[in-house]
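Mods, move this if it's the wrong board.
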Amino acid sequence: MNISQQRLHQLEILKIKNIRELCISFETKNVTAILGPNGYGKSTILHVLACCFQPANETEEDYKFSNFFPPHPDNLWQGSQLKIVHTYRQGTQESPNVETSYGKSSDRWKPIYARRPTRSVLYFGVDNCVPLIEAEKRNNGKIEYSTNEVSNKIINTILEKASFCLNRKYTAYTTNDTVRGKRFIGVEADGIRYSALSMSAGEQKIFFLLDKIFRAEKYSLILIDELDLLLHDSAMNNLMKVVAERAEEKNIQVVFTTHRESVIELSDLINIRHIYSSGEKTLCFNETKPDAIHRLTGKQLKLIEVFVEDDLAMTIVKKVTGELGMSRHVSIQSFGAAINCFTLLAGLLLRGEDCENSIFLLDGDVHRTKEEQKKNLKNVLTGTDEKAKLLQEVGCEKIKSLKLPANTNPEKYIHSLIINLNNTDNQEYNEIIQVAKDINSVDDAHKYVNLIIERLGWERSVGLSKIIDLISSSNEWIDYVADVKDWLESKKVVVEETV
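Not the wrong board. Structure tokens:
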């Protein structure tokens, strides 16, 4: 009885090669991209999936564990264990969320190959990307072949989709038969007819994949290793759009590996799965967070922004982000005088930025109340229409403040915190406390911190960092930074990876 409507839901690998305790879901879209640095097991996942099914008919290739995991002196693959969760229909009987386990505890893999579930599987490895000319040039002499133009519904569709992928108008498709019995394709573009021998590697790959995908049976599972190989960004992204559309149309599932972070832009069409090894286990993250981008590109995205008045406030925020383990995710920038806070905020909102992950932090010595802040914002974000009122309301929520006592400024308050601290086991901290106690009066309250730094002979950035480290041990610190710390904690969900 025919088996149909196959659907792969999940793969769990307890152990195989360098993968440990991995669980990867293939819900909810038909196409899944597996991203991650080299060596974390992306290709191994495809190899495993290829071996989990037996062919639907005799014309299809039968992928076996021994093809991808041949025994050798360094590894016999004993102890390998994995499981898939899948659904299928046999006649009128649906079998949902079936768990099928695989492994090797002795000389043979289990279950025996004839007892594997049935599904059409197509696997495309990196070797499929070798340009035809590289294979044929080993033969000396002239390559003779005859050419025949082919035209049918699928061929015409392939020409149309290839034209879209490569931004080039293809008008004909040919088959070319050599005197040695080999057959390869050819195309016509811009009035020029040429065979796969003259195609670019990326062009050849596009036609090869489109041909296989558009000829694949319904409910097939298609596995593609390093889809991005040989393709520029726009060609790859266009190909993904075509593949996603075809997968939806024919209920095909496609799983591919890639190192190209630009595929993340297609997350509305395809599943994105980030693979990462913690050393003890292999993790799979279903959301793209800054750490995932860093592993792929080496670039650290800072999605959270805190705007402050000066370098002192900047140092305070750096301390808070460090306490929360979020320093790599937060950009801290200065807007200067407190009144500039409102101008900058209004400008960003009027430009159309929602500032969802941004706050504007005041020192707390001026514009202390929400009423003052709202008034100042309305002065630069004018208007009485609904849009202006909405922007004013949103803007007020973005303004936070350090909690200073009344009638003081940040430097004077920090000085007061230091002189009220007891000596510690840290002699450097004790010296800061002693120097602060020697400062009893200044002509400008802003000099309290500067004088400590000058007397100790530090660079300003170093001095500020040491002073803020010291006052963070005071009982008042938690309340002083409560506004900014609470907001930053609420933003952990934006940047932290969860399995």
